[in-house]
Design brief:
Distance between the termini: 54 Å
Number of domains: 1
Radius of gyration: 22 Å
Structural class: alpha+beta
CATH class: Alpha Beta
Strand order of the largest sheet: 3-4-5-7-8
Largest sheet: 5 strands, mixed
CATH architecture: 3-Layer(aba) Sandwich
CATH topology: Trna Endonuclease, Chain: A, domain 1
Strand content: 15-25%
Number of helices: 5
Helix content: 25-40%
């Protein structure tokens, strides 16, 4: 008998019968160990990792007592709009997610150098194992602009391996090697208070 049926779970007056819950079904048996091995962060697409990051950030904001609304996919530069419960203050958040659990750098666009505001934040998300919470790096947009611009100037000043000059491009990298912004939710909390 399936475990839930033993507990008296019924659907429309009939015992709930689900092949994946049946102890006798070898084809549909559920194993936490097998699921853990099958679902590593690198097994999901970049798009799904990004979506997961946005939902993790929205969940964390909600857990901290704020209203978090995920924007539509085509909203430029804003993934989440967060407000306090009185809706008297709001901030915009852009999320960047990596599937590498050890990463401390993320790719951003050159637009970050000119699009910053005191109420605009980046939350860089590092997905961990399937049964672990991600790490969040909460950064004011002006700091992302400053760090990524300085990093790009440093990169462009060095020559390529073949000795030629590097050409500028639209890709920038934000790094937080020291973990200065790790779990700095108080930056957003202060902006919303």
């Amino acid at each position: 008998m399936p475990p839930l049926a033993r507990l008296g779970v019924f659907l429309f007056g009939l015992p709930l019968r689900c092949p994946c819950l049946s102890a006798s079904s070898s084809r549909h048996s559920f194993s936490f160990r097998a699921r853990k091995n099958a679902m590593k962060n690198n097994d999901i697409s970049t798009t799904l990792a990004g979506v997961a990051g946005e939902y993790f950030v929205a969940a964390e904001l909600s857990r901290r007592g704020f209203i978090a609304s995920i924007s539509l996919r085509n909203t430029r530069g804003v993934d989440i709009l967060a407000t306090n419960e009185k809706t008297s203050r709001s901030v915009t958040i852009q999320c960047k997610t990596t599937r590498d659990p050890k990463a401390k750098s993320w790719i951003v666009s050159e637009k970050c150098e000119s699009c910053f505001h005191k109420n605009h934040f980046y939350v860089f998300v590092t997905l961990q194992g399937i049964f672990e919470l991600p790490k969040f790096y909460v950064v004011p947009s002006k700091d992302v602009a400053k760090v990524s611009l300085a990093g790009h100037k440093e990169w462009i000043s060095h020559r390529k391996r073949d000795g030629t000059k590097r050409k500028t491009n639209s890709m920038r990298i934000f790094q937080d090697i020291e973990g200065e912004y790790l779990e700095k939710w108080q930056l957003i909390e202060k902006a919303l208070s």
